[in-house]
Amino acid sequence: MPQTLGYALASYTPLLCALGLIVLFTRYAVRYVEELVRSYLFVSPEHITLDYGCSDWRISSQRAADLYSSGTKLWTREDLKDIEQQLGQSYIMDRFSVRRIDGSIIQISNPLFQVHNPIWKPHIKYQEYWQLVKTQPSGPIETYLCSYIVDWSNQTARNFRESIAQPMQVFEEKDLLWQNSTTCKQLAALVQDLIGTNTVKKVLCFGLGDFCRSAPEWLKKQHGSWDETSDVENVMGCMIQHSMAITIAQLCRGNETVLLLAQDPDYTELAEYILTKKEFKIVGPHGAGGFAEIDEESIVISAFAAAPVKQIIADLARPMLIISTGFNVFNSNE
Asked: Strand ranges (DSSP E) for the chain?
């Protein structure tokens, strides 16, 4: 019996050894596979890569800064003329083409395509330098490199506002008041001294304001009482600004023809009619075409334009004289 038991144990020894080898091999094989998977499929904690700082806005703003530093212009005459022409044909345009500062073109769909009586008016919305490099634009990512885009303003409330009483007569009265003022004489002397014998061929006006539309209801409510005299006082500044432009154009004419151009998307048809009678030519009704007229033989008058007039001028030309609302630096974002 002991011999039989010993024989049985001896016969199991190779099997037990084999099982031991299998267990040992399996243990090391599992470890090897785990290391392999960890090495090739997963990143170890000390090598985790985070890209949360690589936002579209940061990349775009750096691109805009690089382009501008290399001499790329934000605005060109060709682009301003082109977009003005497109918006002027908005009824037949199903989309507008806008050139970004890197030269690429984006297409903006026109919601008013073949709309007969639109209550929305397309206009140019400018994105000046600091919006491209410092303050993130509010539009889609594709517009981050656009120095201008297309926007629409609702005209319903604007069109419900009536005109002031007898705007042509009021304009004539305020124009005469301006011509007889000491300020007019002082301005004429100053402008004459500044331009000297240089030739001026254009006087360009931007954002001088509409002077025919009555005040909005919220303004009337703020004052408690409102009458026709209040309406005139409200637009008198805009009238005087246009009279000032007329004076400067007359001063520069001499024996030469001097164009008197005005751009303000807020003009009413009545204001445009009166200005035309006063030898103005209305340009850029959508807010872009007038800037394409700026050159070295022009005088620019800018009051309260929504566009970044100084930056646009810097890219286009060096006009002989700029009359604006102040001497703010180009960098007003600091």
From this structure: 95-99, 105-109, 120-126, 148-154, 202-206, 259-263, 281-282, 298-302, 321-323
Confidence of residue 48 (pLDDT cuts 50, 70, 90): confident
Beta carbons of 212 and 167 less than 8 angstroms apart: yes
The residue ranges of every structural domain in the chain are 56-155, 161-329
Mean pLDDT of 23-44: 62
Amino acid symbol at 43: V
Residues in CB range of 47: below 8 A, 6 or more apart: none
Q: Report d(CA 334, CA 314) in Å as an integer.
A: 20
Q: At what angle do helices 228-253 and 167-179 cross, to 10 degrees?
A: 50
> Contact, 274 vs 169, CB < 8 A?
no
Q: How far apart are CA 97 and CA 86, in angstroms?
A: 8
In whole angstroms, what is the distance from residue 147 CA to residue 307 CA? Answer: 11
Taking residue 311's Cβ as centre, other Cβ atoms within 10 Å add up to 17
Q: The tokens of 72 are what?
A: 């790329």
Nearest residue to 129 (alpha-carbon basis) of 215, 79, 65 = 65
- Give me the CATH topology for the region 161-329: Rossmann fold (3.40.50)
Given a contact cutoff of 8 angstroms between Cβ atoms, the answer to whether 258 and 200 are in contact is yes
**25-34, 70-79, 122-131, 164-173: the lowest-pLDDT one:** 25-34
Q: What's the token pair of residue 252?
A: 């520069």
Bridging pattern class, strands 202-206 and 95-99: unpaired
